[in-house]
Every structure is written in C-alpha cells, then in structure tokens.
Amino acid sequence: MPGNPRPRTLTGTPLGDLAARLAVAAPSGADPLVTGVTHASAEVHPGDLYAALPGARRHGAEFAADAAAAGAVALLTDPAGAELAAAAGLPALVVPDPRAVLGVLASTVYGDPTSTLTVVGVTGTAGKTSTAYLVESGLRAAGHTTGLIGTVETRLGDLVVDSVRTTPEATDLHAMLAAARERGVTALVMEVSSHALAMGRVGGVRFTVGGYTNFGSDHLDFHADVEDYFAAKARLFDGRCDVEVLNHDDPALRPLYKARTVTYSAAGDRSATWWADGVDGAGYAQRFTLHGPDGLTLPAGVALPGRHNVANALLAVAMLVGAGVDPKTAVDGVAACGGVPGRLELVDAPGPVRGVVDYAHKTDAIVAALAALRELSSGRLICVIGAGGDRDRGKRPHMGAAAARGADLVLVTDDNPRTADPAVIRAEVLAGAYAAGASARILEVAGRRAAIGEAVRLAEPGDVVALLGKGHEQGQEVAGQVHPFDDRVELATALRARFGDPAGRQ
Ligand SMILES: CC(=O)N[C@H]1[C@@H](OP(=O)(O)OP(=O)(O)OC[C@H]2O[C@@H](n3ccc(=O)[nH]c3=O)[C@H](O)[C@@H]2O)O[C@H](CO)[C@@H](O)[C@@H]1O[C@H](C)C(=O)N[C@@H](C)C(=O)N[C@H](CCC(=O)O)C(=O)O
Ligand SMILES: Nc1ncnc2c1ncn2[C@@H]1O[C@H](COP(=O)(O)OP(=O)(O)OP(=O)(O)O)[C@@H](O)[C@H]1O
Ligand SMILES: N[C@H](CCC[C@H](N)C(=O)O)C(=O)O
Ligand SMILES: [Mg+2]
C-alpha cells in the first residue's frame, strides 16, 4: 500500500492545464483529470500522473506500464522516456529535464500549498536538524500549529510519519505540504539537503525564510567536487526565499550576500544583523546576550550544549523574526526547546559516567560535538566512532583525526557498513586517527555493540562516553541488511549494567 502522506481532498487538475502551466505541448486526445503525482511506480494511486524520471540506475519509463496498471492516467518524462514508455499508452508531457519542472507540476496538482503556509527552510553542512527543532519551538511559542520535515521525523500537525530521507522528492513533498495545510498546520520548518537542491526536490516551494548554517565538506560521493556541492546549496538562495539568513562567521557564504541578506554571528561580530556576546553557563543551560537590528538587546539562552548550538539558536531566532515572529517570543521559544533527538542527547542512565549520543558523522560536526562534550566531562572524554559504507570515503581519515584530537580515548568501530567491508572502513578511520599525532589512546573494536561495551568498561567516574555518528538511527545496516540498533538503548543498557541504576531499574 502506498505509504506517503497525501491530502484527503484531491480536486484534480486537467492534464491540459498542467501542460499550459509548464508551457509544453498538451498531448492530443484525452485530457484526463490528474489528482496526484508520484515518481515511484510502486506508489501510484488511481488518477496519478507518473513522473518517469531518468535515474542513475534505471529510467522510470521502464515502469510506465506498471504505473498504468496501477491507475496512472498520464506521464511526465523526457524524450528518451517517451520512447521507452510508448507501449503504456498514456498521454505524456515531454520535457528535456523532468526533475526541473516536477516541483511546479506537483505544487499545481496539490493546490499550491506554499502559497498559504509559512515555510522555513534550513540548509548547511551541519546543524540543519538541530536548527529546525529550535525553529519549530519558536513557531509554537508564536501560536502556530507546526509541521516539521527532516532527517529524524516528519510531522504534519497530528500526522507523524517516519522520514525516508532528509528532504522528500518534490512529488511527495508537495503532497505532504498539502496534507499539513489540510490538518491545520500554519507554519512548517524543513531541512533542505544538498541532494534535494541538486535534484530539484524543492522546486515549486515558496520559502518564507531560508537559512544557511555553514559550509563544510560532505557528500563528495554525489557532488562532483566542493564547488559543485557549494553550487547545489546556493540554489536555496536563488530567489525562492522571501528572507535569506546566512552565517556571517562562515566566510564561504559571502558570495551569496545580497543587499537585504540577514546575517548572524555567534562569534560576536557586530557587523552582523544578529550577534551574540556574553555566552555564559555550560552544558544544557547556555545563556547569552542577543543583539539585533535597531539596537535591540535581549537576554537569550539555549538548552543544548556547545558553541555551535549558540549559532544554531541565533539562526533560529533570525529566521523566526524573518517569518514574522516578534523577537522576544522567538527568543523564548528557542530557549524552551528541550532537546533534539540524537543530537548531544544524554542517555537515560543516571550514574557517575555520563553517556551521550550524537549524530556527528562529518569532520566539522565531530570537532563541534567533542568541544561541547569536553565541557560536560570532569574526567576523560571517551569517543566511539565509525564511518558509513557506500558513502563519501574521503571523509573517513578526517573523521578519525578529528576524534583523536578532540577525545582522550577513541574506539574506532563500525557505523553502517552497508555493503562495504567494515574492516576496510575502520582502517581508513584509524589511519587518520594515528596520523593526527594527538595524545589520545586509540583502539579498534569490531562490532558497534562490542565497542560500546568496551568504552563503558574502560570508563571511570567523571568520564563522558560519547557515541558519535548514528544519533537517532533505529537500525544498523550491515551487508545490505538493517538490524534493529539504537545507540541510546545500547549505551544506557551498558552503563546501567556497569554502574547500577540508582532508580532501581535494570
Ligand atoms: C543519489 C540520490 O539521491 N538518488 C535518488 C535518485 O535515485 P536514482 O537516480 O538512482 O533512481 P533510479 O533507481 O535510477 O530510478 C530512476 C527512477 O525510476 C523510478 N523507479 C525505479 C524502480 C522502480 O521499480 N520503479 C520506479 O518508479 C525511481 O523512483 C526513479 O524516479 O532518485 C530516487 C527517486 O527518484 C531517489 O530515491 C534516490 O535517492 C536515494 C535513495 C538516496 O539514498 N538518496 C540519499 C543519498 C539522499 O537523498 N540524501 C539526502 C541528504 C542526506 C544528508 O544530508 O545527509 C537526503 O535528502 O536525504
Ligand atoms: N552549527 C553547527 N556547526 C557544526 N556542527 C554542528 C552544528 N550543529 C550541529 N552540529 C553537529 O553536527 C551533528 C549533526 O547535526 P544536525 O543533525 O543538527 O545537522 P544536519 O545538518 O541536519 O546533519 P545531517 O545532514 O547529517 O542530517 C550534530 O550531532 C552535532 O554534532
Ligand atoms: N544521511 C546521511 C546519514 C549518515 C549517517 C551515518 N550513520 C552513516 O551511515 O554514514 C547519509 O546517508 O549519508
Ligand atoms: Mg539533518
């Protein structure tokens, strides 16, 4: 059964109108009413237009007959696809680059949901998920009924679904936005990944505000080079956002500045629109003074550790104000955010050793997470880390080096090996860890559960044990199979077994 959320009410758009909207020739003959759109043949609902997209592995047109059998009434495809799909006998809109128009088409079919929704979009190499939760908290404080679409979960008012990816394909995204609107959502915050921008997944979305956390290196398995990665992210700032908010502390973002760009600086640069100083307190109770336009000064705070979360909080406030929230409400709403799943999350194991789970799986994130965790430790900082298989391989040694520089004891283990050889991945992470020349002790432990057990066995009162890389993930993909695995549960269980549980739970 197709699982992606859709609006309950589907009015439908005649195919001829869609052709006119895309300024392409309407197919002669039948003019079916299109009531939904999908790019996946297995997800076709009767009345759908099936977008038969050219892919890295297959051409969607190979599945046009399946789509027709499931009730599709029309196609969108490219010239190669039109030939391949001819036998399916469906009227087709043919364009050179279907992904480039798919968002506008889906938006039209689903009633242009972003014309009446406040939509806040966050991009950047690290901090999208964290910032999205802070923004959502501020939108709630302002009285909005909220939605959130991102890496961890998808919430459309009272409808909660698992997130398959950080940013859904345009077809699914516009259906979700329409479903959110139908359920009374007035403001929605979403993460916008570089894959999404490169592949047109946010086409047709009007953003009230777009924000950019920072630019680092990632996903070079997908993007041709760093320039290509930057160009993908830059697309969010090509005019599709009413307000643009950029991190002034990251010089890489300067080429995107325009006359009306809003900027923020956690480093306290007074030339930014929003800046912070007087950062005080540590751990899960950071306070700072927020400075804004026209001499505005407000006491502010964020209940998350690390200087990077002060930056995320500033971005959240700046975006909220851009979305029409008054600054005091925005500040209070951001401060009220109680935590982000799998991001510097304390595990449920009271005792002399703090256990923390974090999603850092790129170099800059590891540096930021370990700096934050250092402040939580009155003893040593013990870090368990691996790297994903079938993903950007170049980042592995850098991840190892960052762990060796930031922690006292590093256990290099497995993340999601996927179809790659775990021993090879560990060797690449270890090579970077050793090459860093840091004083940290470095161990290799095959198997994540074994590594967590070993980290806890080696811990002493006052230490922090941090598991990096998997955060909120509920499974571990080994040899192409996903096994249930939750770092938070594993670490809490190991800590309780070693140190007991004052609350009496076992
Ligand atoms: C690299 C990438 O993003 N690839 C996306 C791309 O896949 P592809 O080009 O390989 O597609 P393909 O398998 O050749 O198939 C071609 C077309 O035929 C269709 N098809 C195929 C088979 C079939 O039986 N029926 C059918 O309809 C497919 O839906 C597709 O439209 O188009 C597919 C749908 O059109 C996406 O599902 C797929 O995402 C894959 C699964 C993926 O893993 N993406 C990840 C890397 C991703 O997007 N990550 C980002 C960033 C996360 C982060 O920041 O860390 C995210 O936003 O989640
Ligand atoms: N502003 C930031 N700068 C650097 N590191 C950060 C920042 N915010 C969060 N991090 C670190 O990066 C990790 C991932 O953070 P988060 O999930 O918020 O980012 P993301 O951009 O959504 O990541 P992903 O693309 O992996 O989903 C966190 O667990 C934390 O260690
Ligand atoms: N969305 C990211 C998540 C990576 C998380 C990490 N645990 C890994 O498996 O590398 C990706 O698919 O690249
Ligand atoms: Mg994310």
Summarize the structure.
By secondary structure, this protein is α/β, with parallel strands linked by helices. It has 15 helices and 25 strands.
Kindly report the average pLDDT value. 95
Gyration radius, in Å: 24 Å
CATH class of the largest domain: Alpha Beta
From the coordinates shown, what is the CATH architecture of the largest domain? 3-Layer(aba) Sandwich
Q: What is the fourth-level CATH superfamily of the largest domain?
A: Mur-like, catalytic domain
The number of distinct helices, counting runs of at least 4 residues, comes to 15
Give the neighbour order of strands across the main sheet.
10-9-8-11-7-12-13-14-15-16-17
Low-confidence stretches: none
Count of DSSP E strands? 25
* % residues in beta strands: 15-25%
| Structure classification | alpha/beta
Terminus-to-terminus distance: 40 Å
Q: What is bound: which ligands? A: ligand UAG, adenosine-5'-triphosphate, 2,6-diaminopimelic acid, magnesium ion
Shape annotation: globular
GO molecular function: ATP binding; magnesium ion binding; UDP-N-acetylmuramoylalanyl-D-glutamate-2,6-diaminopimelate ligase activity
Domain Mur ligase N-terminal catalytic: 34-109
Family: Belongs to the MurCDEF family. MurE subfamily.
Binding site for UDP-N-acetyl-alpha-D-muramoyl-L-alanyl-D-glutamate: 41, 166-167, 193, 201
Question: Could you walk me through the main structural features you see in this protein, from its secondary elements to its overall organization?
Answer:
Its main location: cytoplasm. Meso-2,6-diaminopimelate binds at residues 391, 415-418, 469, 473. The modification N6-carboxylysine is found at residue 233. By secondary structure, the protein is α/β, with parallel strands linked by helices. The chain has 3 domains: 13-109, Udp-n-acetylmuramoylalanyl-d-glutamate--2,6- Diaminopimelate Ligase, Chain: A, domain 1; 113-336, UDP-N-acetylmuramoyl-L-alanine:D-glutamate ligase (3-Layer(aba) Sandwich); 345-499, Mur ligase, C-terminal domain (Protein-Tyrosine Phosphatase, Chain A), CATH 3.90.190.20. Helix content is 32%, strand content 22%. It is built from 15 helices and 25 strands. The strands form 5 sheets. An 11-stranded mixed sheet has the order 10-9-8-11-7-12-13-14-15-16-17. α4 runs parallel beside α6 and α5 (128-141) packs across α9. The chain is globular. The two termini are 40 Å apart. The model has no long low-confidence stretch (mean pLDDT 95). The chain binds ligand UAG, adenosine-5'-triphosphate (ATP), 2,6-diaminopimelic acid and magnesium ion. The site of ligand UAG has 18 residues, from α7.
